[in-house]
Structures are given as structure tokens and as C-alpha cells.
Specification:
- Helices cover about 25% and strands about 35% of the residues.
- The chain has two helices and five strands; from the N terminus they run ββαβαββ.
- The chain is globular.
């Protein structure tokens, strides 16, 4: 990285995992506080979703805690819509936001 570049956050794709059906891809992301509010998370989610589609993913899933309106907004701006509600093994509640990836490689 150059002197004017810095790590903004992370994005993670999982093509298999707890509760995922074949063809579903879990998308997770996080931004450092200094990089929030500039659309970077939304852009990263869109690009990661396009990559997942190019690798055969059919549906992207973002699992959001209902008390996290910022992540809900990122999911919605990236074209995801609310789906099922789920609970992790530790009892954390999530709303799945889902985006159909078929035809999303462009």
C-alpha cells in the first residue's frame, strides 16, 4: 500500500456454511469507523456478489442482527430483500437479507 492508502475493512464470502442451501453464498462485511458513511460497504457487497455469481453462486445471503440498522441499510442499498429469520447456536437472532445472483455477473 502507498502512503495515502489504508485498509478500509473486510468482506468475506462463504459458499457453504450453517443453514446455507446449495447455491447460497453468505456475504459478511465490516468497515473501520473512519471509513463508514461513504458507500464503501455497499460497493464491496455489490462487487463480492458479482464475483459469487461468476463462481456459480445463485443467491447471496447477508445475516443481519435486527438491532443493526446500518447493516440493514447496506443490504437494502445493495439490492437485498428481507427473507427468513434465523437464530444462531448461541441464541443470536438474525434476519436473512437475500439477493438473487442469477444474471448478476455484470
Amino acid at each position: 500500500m502507498g502512503a495515502d492508502e489504508a485498509l478500509a475493512g473486510t468482506i468475506d464470502l462463504r459458499f457453504a456454511g450453517e443453514g446455507l442451501a446449495p447455491g447460497q453464498v453468505n456475504v459478511a462485511y465490516g468497515l473501520y469507523p473512519s471509513c463508514r458513511g461513504r458507500g464503501l460497504a455497499t460497493r464491496a457487497v455489490v462487487l463480492a456478489s458479482q464475483y459469487a455469481a461468476s463462481e456459480g453462486g445463485e443467491e447471496a445471503v447477508i445475516q443481519v442482527e435486527p438491532e443493526n440498522p446500518t447493516s440493514v441499510a447496506v443490504a437494502q442499498r445493495a439490492g437485498f430483500t428481507p427473507g427468513k429469520q434465523a437464530q444462531s447456536k448461541d441464541g443470536t437472532r438474525f434476519i436473512w437479507y437475500i439477493r438473487d445472483l442469477r444474471g448478476a455477473t455484470q
